[in-house]
Amino acid sequence: MAGNARIANASSKVPAAHPIRDAQRRLAPVRRWFFSNAWSAALAWFAIATVLVAALGWFFVFSPYGAPAAPAYAAY
Length: 76
Hints:
Structural class: mainly alpha
């Protein structure tokens, strides 16, 4: 039975929806706005740049992950 259902689906003429193309089509207006000369797009760019700089600042200043490794003999 499953084989027959597979053959019936393969013979249909409706093209399968591609999730990447659908997402690109749905996000095209957002992309057009984001790369436009609107003041709100400039504000969005500024907000994103601020968040990225804050993440780098947290990593190198406040987190222990940005510190250089201590020598192996320091604990002895």
